[in-house]
Amino acid sequence: MMDVLGAGALLILSAPLMAALALRIKLHDGGPALFRRRVIGPNGEFDAFKLRTMRVDADEVLRRDEELRRQFEINFKLKNDPRVTPVGVAFRRNSLDELPQLWNVLKGEMSLVGPRMITPAELKRYGTAGWIFQHMRPGLTGYWQIHGKEETGYDHRINMDLFYVENWSLLFDLKILIRTPWRVLRGSGV
């Protein structure tokens, strides 16, 4: 109930902002405003929606650049990613690109709070810990997002997801939700 009510209210409140951000993306390079990221959850794979923050040809750039691809494969992220547009940098700083995932929460594919969203390719990195994605929906925010985000290595992220799942409670989720806006406003969160 918390997911549906929270996501519904936030979606209504943020709709004008999302429309303005989508227009800004479209005016910047003419490409699509939304990006679909294929991720996994308890019911299998689904498309998580995001505002597009990268160049239209971002996947091709990664495919062509062997060194960039090697760096990406270590943590499934790039520090100072050259594929991110100037508009995207601004949106990512305050996690504005994540707002469309409220729709995924309303659809029951995600939760407001949960383990980190991962792609099918990342599941291999989780090894025996991959069971958590069969039991919990990925979260719009979570323990990892408020306790490290970019500063942590991949194995530490896995341990944070395990810690969250093994210690889950409604109170734990509420604490994460309360801390999330502060991290976003500081530009170091979710």
Question: Can you tag this structure with a few keywords?
Answer:
190 residues; mainly alpha; two-stranded antiparallel sheet; two-stranded parallel ribbon; 10 helices; 12% strand; globular
Give me the side-by-side strand order of the main sheet: 1-2
Largest sheet: 2 strands, antiparallel
What is the end-to-end distance? 22 Å
The succession of helices and strands, N to C, reads HEEHHHHEHHEHHH
Let me know the number of strands. Answer: 4
Low-confidence region ranges = none
Percentage of residues assigned to helices: 40-55%
> Any idea how many domains?
1
Beta fraction of the residues?
5-15%
Q: With helices defined by DSSP (H or I, 4 residues minimum), what is the helix count?
A: 10
Q: Would you tell me the overall average pLDDT? A: 90
Rg computed from alpha carbons, rounded to a whole number of angstroms:
16 Å
Structural class label: mainly alpha
Name the overall outline.
Answer: globular
Describe the overall structure.
There is one protein chain. The protein is mainly alpha-helical. The protein has one domain (2-186). It is built from 10 helices and 4 strands; from the N terminus they run H-E-E-H-H-H-H-E-H-H-E-H-H-H. The strands form 2 sheets. A two-stranded antiparallel ribbon has the order 1-2. The two termini are 22 Å apart.
Can you summarize this structure?
The protein is mainly alpha-helical and 190 residues long. It contains ten helices and four strands; from the N terminus they run H-E-E-H-H-H-H-E-H-H-E-H-H-H.
